[in-house]
Please model this.
Amino acid sequence: YSLSSLGRWLAGGTRPVLVALGACPIPNAPRISRVLVETARATGQRLLVHSTTTRLETGLPSGGLCFDLREVTCLARLCRVSSAVVHCGSAHATACALRSGIPMLILDRALGSAFEGIAAFAAGVGPQPISLLRMTTNEVCRKLNDVLSSDMVARAQILQGRVDHEDGVEGAAAHFEDCMPRQNLLCDVGLLLDPPEARVARFTFSSLFGQELKVHSELLAIVRAPHLRGLTNIWERWRYSWAPRHAVKTWGLARVSGLLAGLAAGTLGCLTEIVALSTNAVLVPDRLAREHGILGAIVGLIVLPFVALRHLLRCGLILIDRCATGAYNAACELKYSPEDAHRAQCAYILDPWMSTRHLSRQTLVGVDAELNAFAHVTPDRARVLLDALDLAWNARRLFDTCASRGSQVHVVGEKQG
Model:
């Protein structure tokens, strides 16, 4: 059971298969122990069973084919003395197996482990995952034979070489940047300057016709600056004084790509609104009562049905929008090439309430502190930005007129009317 006895056991035979369960809680531990012992006897393969939380008993019943390690130790070191790894899909165990160049078998017990198992199977370094709770001796024996095959071992060693030569942080950052909705993050006005300025949008300017522009904090500071009032009229100052925070849409970071995915996203959105409805049923009257006494409580009870109706309407709207968006994006994948389909797909179709800016509210102190950084903008700089703002409004009106109503996106190779 100790590290000292582990060294003697490792030296007494071939490289074992590491069963890295670690701190994973395992229900019905006696049955799992019996399956592992029967697997070791049937295959003649030695098993190094590492379990610290659920103490499996495999050493004595297997007659020395299994070794029970209960001490917390370095998993990477155990992988280097093993021929394969069986684990519950933890990212750490997966990384240790890949860095050691050995194949793996993943025992599926949760959504995360299922993902790791599918990824390992797709990479060719492991078979299809099996259920931890329903696994049998015959199934484990068959999977172990696949894991220890020469082809899978060779693929694991090839993948180890690729992992050793890649920069994981740089690759992850590049993938993250490639998938980000840049068109929803940058200031619309800064891109029209000469030369263009890529600046993060912080606020939203709206028109009477529902059109919106994403702008940087500097533009809002110019509109509100007392020493620049001569560059704007009263209507513009009043219109832009109510600029809310810009926020990425609720589903702007991930597009549903099918009807089933849209149905799942819509159902989750409906559940979110139902939870919000049950919360507001208590909070709205309570908040008004604390602020205005008994009169506020009465007003809160009167307003409550309208709040409930708003949430119910949003439930239906979210469900319809998600399903319609998923169907539209699936049709784009069938109609266009993979490169053009990504450009044609949309993040939403109906969007009167779908933004998350109500989750991104800032206090007045926070907004003022951000705008004070641009308190000394020169009049020349302000004129350039205001001219670019007028140009951006004209471009937005032209785009909304010409672009397709569904996605508001031009497809490469397609002429939109």
